[in-house]
Amino acid sequence: MDGPGSTTAPAGRAVVISAISGTAGVGKTTLAVMWAHHVRAKFPDGQLYVNLRGYDPGPPATPGEVLDGFLRALDVPAANIPPSLDDRAALFRSVVTGRGLLIVLDNANSVAQIRPLLPGSSSCMVVVTSRDKLTGLAVSVGMHRISIDRLPEADAVALLRTIVGPDRADAEPAAVAHLARLCDRLPLAIQIAAQRAVTRPHLALGELAAELADADRRLEVFSLSADQFTAIRPVLSWSYRHLPEAQARLLRLLGLHPGPDIGTDAAAATAGLAPAVARQLLDGLVEAHLIEAAEVDRVQLHDLLRAYARECAEVTDTVEERREALHRLVGWYLHATAAADRQLHPGRQRGVVDASPIPEYPAVFGDFDAALEWCETERANLVAVARVAAETGLGAAAWQLANNLWSFFYLRKYWTDWVAVHETGLAAARELRDPKGQARMLNGLATAYVGMRRFAESLDHFQAAREFFRAAGDRWGEGMVLANLADTHLGLCRYPDAAGYARQAVEVIRETGNQYSEGIAMGNLGEAYLGMGAHYDALCQFRRVLELCRAIGHRHGEAVTLIHLGESHLGLGEYEKALDRLSEGLDLARQLRDRHSEALALSTRGIVYHHTGQPDASRQNWQAALDIYEDLGDPRAEALRDQLRQPRTRSG
Questions:
Q1: Computed from CA positions of residues 82, 84, 85, 87, in that sequence, does the dihedral angle turn out positive or negative?
Q2: 557, CA 20 to 30 Å: which among 116, 170, 279, 446?
Q3: DSSP H helical segments within 392-494, as ranges?
Q4: DSSP string, 19-56
Q5: In residue terms, where are the TPR repeats (predicted)?
Q6: Which candidate, 131, 127, 109, 112, places its Cα nearest to that of 52?
């Protein structure tokens, strides 16, 4: 066998699982990734990789969020991903059955973190890296276990020779061997030491070895019995000591960041620097191999480097200085999420940022796509920053950040993160006894519960939110809760109840002068009329909504309303008018890339063509709508499939 395991499952085993274990910095991840690249042709359906963050300073990746990412990577629509861990694990096993996949689970900290992520198909292979031996997994599933030790001395010397160059190494062979021993033969430590030599070409390797041996007296001891971190700390201390103070300070503060990686602008905010200055300092840290470049304008720290940076911050910087850095970071993210929210859901006026002053260099998003992409990239960080805000005395920022993420979560349906961030915010708001914060968090949680079909909890939370909005004197918030209650009852097909809440919402929101929100409530009332078969009332209502949307430039609302007007005309038997409105709505939905509305317009137009005796046009529209619904994982696809199975008939 030429790697961690065979790609063919032994008889009786559901899936081949290989675990690579060893001390930190020994090269487990490098081995797994290089081997995966080497055998990629043996896995025709691709590879899945995840860093489980088992030893990061922040919380490790949960099996639920990993499965969410895997299922999305395997083209499972967000709407089809169940909220519970057991259901996600079952769906994952079903989706990968029969597929030739390699799954790399990097940096695991426990068997419990891994077990839900295991497929049940012999066509798959799993490679796990961990500092833990994962004995329980070896016993329960017959896992192949591969333990990696530090490099043999000859290999350690060879690695040093490769980096510093053979001419320089041949000139000082004893110094090279000494450096290898001082680095404890750990690949990560050797890389750092050798790169330091490369950046100082005129310094003798013997002098570098002496410098390493004499660095920071607290960190001098090398010992085979030392833990994973102490084996590498002397080399890190040596590299750190030679940094310019500005770079050293930035490295220390990067260690305080709670997420898996960090963007240049966020790093700049943490250190109180201009982004251009921070970018230069980060480039220097990358060249020194103290941090790693992740994506464009993003960096990450190896877990040992992060722990070392945090330790240096605790030694060098005061408690107040560290707190101020975290507060600058939280404030930057708070205002960034508000800016993103304004692009993702303009006009709704959800953003709240009074917990923190405006940053000197705030995030700016030019359009919807830029805001959405940033939220996707920062998602794990945003969850972690909300937690840090609550833990460091910024409870108001914790709930406001969660509030500002509402539009992103509403669009992307990351249920686990949505609930986690709002629960953090709710706890913080409760500790502050802030009725406004509690109202917003309860409303946000309830909206998530609607999407998760946890209707009983949703209704309870909406009612509680309504009381807190009343206590805070927030009429807009109270009106939006009423509109959300209307929407919930629409989902439950309780149309008279939905109409009642929608009427109340319109009345309350109209007092606030927020026409955007008023249009939402009015639209809910129109949908309730449609559900009750009151098509003329729906028509009149949607005409008023259309007028409002056009007056305030709400193009998405205009597109949806045009389609609902088409449905109203259809219900009244006014087929030509229905087609006119549906075609207008379809064109606008396509301009806005609103695929749900596009599919609704197409499916409704198919019904109109069916009633007017045009079966070919009818089926063409239904098929186009079905293609979109299937792509989005919308349950309405099944009804369209049934309709398309019916024999062609003419109906007049």
A1: negative
A2: 446
A3: 395-404, 406-412, 415-432, 435-451, 455-472, 475-491
A4: EEEESTTSSHHHHHHHHHHHTGGG-TT-EEEEE--TTS
A5: 559-592
A6: 109
> What pLDDT score does 221 carry?
30
Cα separation of 390 and 399, whole Å? 8
d(CA 372, CA 407): 10
Global pTM value: 0.77
Exposure of 439 in the CB half-sphere (CA atoms within 13 A): 21
The whole-angstrom separation of Cα 437 and Cα 426 is: 7
User: How far out from the chain centre does Cα 445 lie?
Assistant: 18
Cβ within 8 Å of residue 236, ≥6 positions away: 192, 290, 304, 305, 308
Q: Count of H helices and E strands in the chain? A: 31, 8
Contacts of 437 (CB under 8 A, 6+ apart): 395, 396, 399, 400, 403, 425, 426, 428, 429
pLDDT tens digit string along 17-32? 888 887 667 778 888 8
Task: Assign 3-class secondary structure to 548-613.
Answer: HHHHHCCHHHHHHHHHHHHHHHHHCCCHHHHHHHHHHHHHHHHHCCCHHHHHHHHHHHHHHHHHCC
CA proximity to 469, closest of 434, 421, 506: 434
- pLDDT per position as a tens digit, 381-430: 999 999 999 999 999 999 999 999 998 888 777 888 999 999 999 999 99
Binning the chain into helix, strand and coil, the percentages to the nearest 5 are 65, 5, 30
Residue-level pLDDT at 375: 95
* Alpha-helical regions (H) of 119-204: 135-141, 153-164, 166-171, 173-182, 187-198
> Residue 233: its pLDDT value, please?
67
Neighbour-count burial for 602-630, b at 16+ CB within 10 Å, e otherwise:
bbbbbbbbbebebbebbbebbebbbebbb
The three-class DSSP label of residue 130 is: strand
Would you place residue 46 in the very low, low, confident or very high pLDDT band (cuts 50, 70, 90)?
very high
Predicted pLDDT of residue 214: 52
- In tens, the pLDDT along 512-524 reads 988 988 999 999 9
Give the span between the Cα atoms of 128 and 144, in whole angstroms.
10
> Looking at residues 484-493, what average pLDDT do you find?
92
- pLDDT of 140 reads 62
The pLDDT score that the predictor gives to residue 651 is 46
Alpha carbon distance 191, 152 (integer Å): 15
Query: How do residues 185-209 score in pLDDT, each as one tens digit?
Result: 878 778 777 887 888 888 899 988 8
- Sole residue written with tokens 């310094």: 203
- CA 328 vs CA 58, 214, 259, 394, 399: distances in Å: 18, 36, 15, 11, 16
Q: Is the pLDDT of residue 223 over 70?
A: no
Higher pLDDT, 236 or 84: 84
For the cut 70, the answer to whether the pLDDT of residue 10 exceeds it is no
CA angle at 244 for the pair 310 and 289, rounded to the nearest 5°: 60
Question: By C-alpha distance, which of 73, 67, 126, 129 is closest to 101?
Answer: 126
Of 221, 241, 248, 243, the C-alpha closest to 232 is 221
* Token pair belonging to 105: 């689970």
Pairing of β 47-51 and β 16-22: unpaired
How big is the CA angle at 304 (ends 300 and 308), to the nearest 5 degrees?
Answer: 95
Q: Choose among 260, 306, 255, 263: nearest CA to 50.
A: 260
